[in-house]
TrEMBL record:
Pfam families: OprB. Residues 1-33 form the signal peptide. InterPro entries: Carb-sel_porin_OprB, OprB_Porin, OprB_sf. It comes from the Bacteria. PANTHER family: PORIN B (PTHR37944). Keywords: Signal. It comes from Candidatus Kirkpatrickella diaphorinae. Belongs to the OprB family. This is Carbohydrate porin.
Length: 458
């Protein structure tokens, strides 16, 4: 068990840091805010799938992948918005191709080096990720307006060999269909389920924690995060598009964790992994997007049930199912520039709770204050300050820390991050974080980690 725990954190931070950078990169400029709702609900303009007036690059934004709570950057903020004529050539035929490359470096500057590494950044770690994505407008083959095919691939490299990240695999292969003027959307195929729910990359992020995905309760309970799983996702919106119910059913991630799941399914296309069953999520929410003199509000709460047998830490046997629930609220506090309503200060509060017998982390509480466009001259930058408390379940604590003379029951992370828009298509994110108890199997000195992420979009 110690080996598996030691391997998990690094892989997490690579992926989450990339997605956090992408989220910051897609901060909506006024034109972008008019183009799409970040929860995947398109306005009439997008649903018509017609090219928009204005800058050439902006005209292709309606073709960007929809549905995920980690939205993708506007085509105008890429290294070559027109892709030297390729974007127009493909766009006229219903296709859009986009991509990102993220390079990441992290190190615990307190110098707690150890072989093998016990947590993310204990030794200097470099990682790289290349992500390529293609969409196709399915209205061209007779489906309802707004319907879309998405296929994407990931290629990972990491200097931390213990993380097991050095591969190329499928990231997503889905069809999105919309019905009743966009009030019902159905997504089916292969995808990372956690990316469709929760909105976990807004505000607090495991990019700032040595604990990695081990501390993300929905991931512990089986929502896939890296390797895609087959599933169906249904969103139903009330007429005002503010209240919604979001239901998903998918093949669970392996009960042994995301590394075991990735090793059993390295290509990402395997339909079934031994021992896994269905996981079901139901999320209800209320969401108001920022508009002039209207501040953003997003509340969501959900329950997770997984039929896959999980290890019971009291008996050390795999039996029964797993479950969890969560609640998150984001609220815009200040809106200094009504002409750019997304700018301002926000607060995010979240909590997760899981079965105390079958999970390592059973409760967490997090608070983040963050600013989008903290300076008028830097409208696409983002600053965040966050604190997370992760509680280790009593059953797991007794099992994992057997023989340890210094037992502990929680870990905390305090972080400060700043994402700077260096130039078109280039973002640099710097994170400083302090994590207590960075290795849960035994007491280790606290970690103070510095992390840098360079993201290039094209």
């Amino acid at each position: 068990m110690k080996t598996e725990i030691a391997q998990r954190p690094k892989a997490a931070s690579v992926r989450v840091a990339m997605l956090a950078s992408l989220l910051i990169a897609c901060v909506p400029v006024p034109a972008r805010a008019q183009l799409t709702n970040l929860n995947g609900v398109s306005n009439a303009t997008i649903e018509s799938r017609k090219m928009l007036p204005g800058p050439e690059c902006q005209r292709y934004d309606p073709m960007i992948t929809q549905g995920s709570e980690s939205p993708i950057i506007t085509t105008c903020d890429t290294l070559a918005p027109g892709q030297f004529g390729l974007r127009k050539f493909l766009g006229d035929r219903g296709f859009l191709i986009e991509g990102f490359y993220t390079a990441s470096m992290i190190y615990d500057v307190l110098g707690h080096q150890h072989r093998p590494q016990l947590y993310n950044g204990q030794r200097p770690n470099f990682s790289g990720n290349l992500w390529l994505n293609m969409t196709y407008d399915l209205e061209r083959v007779g489906l309802n307006p707004g319907s879309q095919l998405t296929v994407s691939m990931n290629s990972w490299q990491s200097a931390y060999t213990g993380a097991g990240i050095r591969a190329t695999s499928l990231s997503q292969a889905t069809i999105l269909q919309k019905f009743f003027d966009g009030h019902v959307s159905v997504l089916y195929g292969y995808y990372a389920m956690l990316g469709q729910f929760y909105g976990m990359f807004l505000g607090t992020s495991t990019a700032s924690s040595a604990l990695g995905p081990l501390s993300i309760i929905p991931n512990q309970v089986g929502l896939s995060m890296y390797t895609p799983t087959p599933g169906v996702d249904v969103r139903i919106y009330l007429p005002d598009r503010r209240f919604y119910n979001h239901i998903g059913v998918a093949r669970s991630q392996s009960a042994l964790g995301f590394l075991a799941d990735s090793r059993a399914n390295p290509s990402g296309v395997k339909f079934q992994v031994d021992g896994t069953r269905a996981v079901v999520v139901d999320e209800i929410g209320f969401r108001v997007h920022p508009q002039s003199h209207v501040k953003m509000t997003w509340f969501r709460a959900g329950g997770i049930y997984n039929a896959t047998p999980y290890r019971d830490f009291r008996t050390n046997q795999f039996s029964s199912s797993n479950n969890a629930w969560y609640a998150v609220i984001d609220r815009q506090l200040l809106q200094p520039d009504p002409d750019n309503p997304y700018r301002g200060w926000y607060v995010e509060l979240k909590t997760d709770h899981a079965d105390r017998r079958r999970n390592i982390f059973t409760d967490d509480y997090a608070a983040t204050i963050y600013s989008i466009g903290p300076l008028k001259s830097r409208p696409r930058d983002m600053l965040s300050i966050g604190f997370t408390y992760n509680k280790i379940g009593p059953a797991a604590m007794r099992s994992l820390q057997a023989g340890n003379g210094r037992p502990f029951d929680h870990s905390t992370t305090t972080s400060v991050a700043y994402a700077a828009h260096a130039m078109r298509g280039v973002y640099f994110t710097t994170t400083a974080s302090y994590t207590t108890k960075p290795f849960i199997a035994e007491a280790k000195p606290d970690a103070f980690s510095l992390q840098g992420n360079l993201t290039l979009s094209f």
